[in-house]
Amino acid sequence: MPHRPGKLHLNAFLMTIGHHESAWRYPESNLTGTWDVAHYQHLARVAERAKFDSIFFGDGPALQGDIRYRPVGRLDPTALLPALAVVTERIGLVATASTTYNEPYNLARRFATIDHISGGRAGWNIVTTAGSDAAQNFGLDEVPEHRHRYERAAEFVDVCLQLWDSWEDDFLIGDREKGRFADGDKIHRIDHEGRFFRVRGPLNVPRTPQGHPLLVQAGSSEDGREFAAQYAEAVFTAQQTLAEGQAFYADLKRRIAAFGRKPGLVKILPGIVPVLGGTEEEARRRESELAELQVPAYGLKQLSGLIGAELTEADLDRPLPPVGDVTAVRGMQSRFALVTDLARRENLTVRQLLSRLGGGRGHRTFTGTPEQVAETIEEWFTQGAADGFNVMPPLLPSGLEAFAEHVVPILQRRGLFRTEYEGTTLRDHYGLPRPENRFAARRAAGGQVAAAAPAR
Amino acid sequence: MPHRPGKLHLNAFLMTIGHHESAWRYPESNLTGTWDVAHYQHLARVAERAKFDSIFFGDGPALQGDIRYRPVGRLDPTALLPALAVVTERIGLVATASTTYNEPYNLARRFATIDHISGGRAGWNIVTTAGSDAAQNFGLDEVPEHRHRYERAAEFVDVCLQLWDSWEDDFLIGDREKGRFADGDKIHRIDHEGRFFRVRGPLNVPRTPQGHPLLVQAGSSEDGREFAAQYAEAVFTAQQTLAEGQAFYADLKRRIAAFGRKPGLVKILPGIVPVLGGTEEEARRRESELAELQVPAYGLKQLSGLIGAELTEADLDRPLPPVGDVTAVRGMQSRFALVTDLARRENLTVRQLLSRLGGGRGHRTFTGTPEQVAETIEEWFTQGAADGFNVMPPLLPSGLEAFAEHVVPILQRRGLFRTEYEGTTLRDHYGLPRPENRFAARRAAGGQVAAAAPAR
């Protein structure tokens, strides 16, 4: 499927002081940067100067990863984004939040607030949260099973979409003389009653500059793809090879069409870990150096969590032991498949596998000169594997600064990437329209719409 | 009980574009200010220039109040505070959040994040949320009963306190050479199992600059007072007369002592609505003008909600009809008592009562010249009715600007209020110590402390 070259999209995935496990061991690292708003403000400004579409934070409500060997834990990204919104002007701001451990009214409202504060730059990466450590912070023994989580997620998003539309855009009357502030007929209860949620509405925040925050999704399992095809406007994914990227891209665009949506209105962004050097040799040296600084005990624990099998005693210099079947995985099914396929395909020892996962936990590492990295980006973009990329610098801030300084200008010179923002909202950057308000649409179609205020 | 005069505390209670129902009807009002971060940034800066201890936002997860007659609804204050934190330097930042409609892990983490982002200036006003409109946004038909809500609140706060201590302050090793980032023995599971919550921990955010956010409480019912006496570090309250203020103050300080806490370490701040004028006559005129601009339909609905009885058809020019007994009130018991006492004591017609409630919903209105208002503040402060005040300007920003410009300097000249911040955290401003970490204390006492990391 040939891809019509146009503008590609770049999202900066910001994680602690770098995506690579070894980032903190470099002398340049800010050991407490993970919890320092100034660190993230700097990163947001660097990404904005380079005209990135957006910055993005992953999240999970648990201390995941072994802090003895690496800075883990994170600030609540929904509280961090507002602090970044007011020191930036154009860049989009995407935070992850879980549909399994939140209530839709609270989360719809929080993201609406961020969209208001940022003037229309908010995005929500919708996750269902794998892992028993999160479950056990919310009264459960084990994470709910995969299908159940996705069913709840679908209803959760349905409720949010209704709440975000519960105020029509033109609710304001503002007649000081007559004492009429708002048109009560344009603010609506939603009276949702579903399997998981009963929510009356309306939201207590007006419709936002973007209509609603951009909906992002990042799970690539069967359930995840169906969910993305139905709801997502941008998709983050982990793909190791161009062929896998193309297959995923084609599959997801097909599913999107099957839901009656325009495939072009959903942007697919594989993750890449750029390891840059002035020469290819220097870049390779940097890659090896990062691998050598990994602590195997950390990687084995992460790998155990990733594929749901106990591997902390595994022999580092032998192949990955048998680890069961994807259908039994309660957690991250697509990541399980990616990792076991990678190990099998390239016949990697456990140590080699840990090294491959140390930077991007399954995302593709692009190692080379800025020219080479730009080349690969262009290849994936023009060959139908990506609408853009989720850039995951191994070290932060230096890896993002280097990408902004050396790779972005090449992409701009090749006409692949913007040199100026054209719009003001995140939807503008991704080339997505502001959604219509369902209540206003129903009214325009001559239908009945129930109003909230008079019924109170 | 004579009060030793010292420094009083001032908190600016920021609500939409003013506490008075009529605020929006003034030509100066910003009709969309309620949802505009720039409006709140301006207010935060005004309060900080005047050396207020803190600013504060009320909250409830529902559209409360009839928007046809007044700007209601509000941004999520936990998402608004970070946007204010990064444009201010010293002022404390307090947000309300409900223990009935949140999970402790999420909320403990969000407030910890705000405390990190603000460098130790976060406060949490703990509420249990009255009202069926909120309940119906969370799958319930009716709000849980008063006692039940407070029992849940107590356990909720207990869980948060444990989570906030789950990282000891000196967890960081940061040995780049040996690859040891943190001391796993200093980060703890909490393994809480209670009636309402099971939470494993640890939190995924380090201990915060303040140890934990300042705990604020604002319910003055019997349950509310007991809760405040046990947990609160600052208490907001509504008191109509000096005598009532003194009785509440003495009662709460007694209860605090009964829990083995030092009464001086809990600050009591009654709400005041300052209506200022260059002369007393001008101030009275302003007060009448505000009352004349009230829309009775709005006030009757609010009053109905406040006292849990249907009054929208009440005769405005007759006394308040009989409305039952406080013990049957599921919602705001103390506010019910305050309003019915006020109406009875002063033999008010419904219209007069609405006018008295239009500014502060039961909080005391201080009308007069800046000298007179400062005089009343000093009287309450020195006569054992208050450690400070929760200032609720009828119009925003002008009412806050006027208070800052005209009343604060008088209080400063009289030696009652600071002219400069002495510390950097909200606890510093309120003269409260940073709490000890319970795990570190246990270790210091030679006890066993379970560590989180090795058990993973």
Characterize the largest beta sheet of chain A: strand count, sense, and whether it forms a barrel: 8 strands, parallel, barrel
What share of residues of chain A is helical?
25-40%
Q: What's the CATH H-level homologous superfamily of one domain in chain A?
A: Luciferase-like domain
Helix and strand run of chain A: EHEHEHEHHEEEEEHEHEHHHHEHEHHH
Strand content of chain A: 5-15%
**CATH class group of one domain in chain A:** Alpha Beta
**Quick one: how many beta strands of chain A?**
13
| CATH fold topology of one domain in chain A | TIM Barrel
Structure description:
- Two copies of one chain form a homodimer.
- Chain A is of the alpha/beta class.
- Chain A has a domain at 9-164 and 193-281 and 360-432: Luciferase-like domain (TIM Barrel), CATH 3.20.20.30.
- Helices cover 39% and strands 13% of the residues of chain A.
- Chain A has 15 helices and 13 strands.
- Chain A has helices at residues 37-49, 77-85, 104-117, 132-135, 146-164, 222-231, 242-258, 280-292, 296-307, 333-345, 350-360, 370-382, 398-413, 426-430, 438-444; strands at 9-13, 54-57, 92-98, 122-127, 172-175, 180-182, 192-193, 198-199, 214-217, 234-237, 267-276, 364-368, 388-391.
- An eight-stranded parallel barrel of chain A has the order 1-2-3-4-9-10-11-13, surrounded by seven helices.
- In chain A, β1 (9-13), α1 and β2 (54-57) form a beta-alpha-beta unit.
- In chain A, α2 runs parallel beside α3 (104-117), α9 (296-307) crosses α11 (350-360) and α12 crosses α13.
- The longest helix of chain A is centred in the middle third of the chain and has 19 residues, at 146-164.
- Chain A is globular and about 75 Å long.
- Chain A starts with 8 loop residues before the first strand and ends in a 12-residue tail after the last helix.
- Mean pLDDT of chain A is 93; it is low at 1-5.
- At the A-B interface, α2, α3, β6 and β8 of A face α2, α3, β6 and β8 of B.
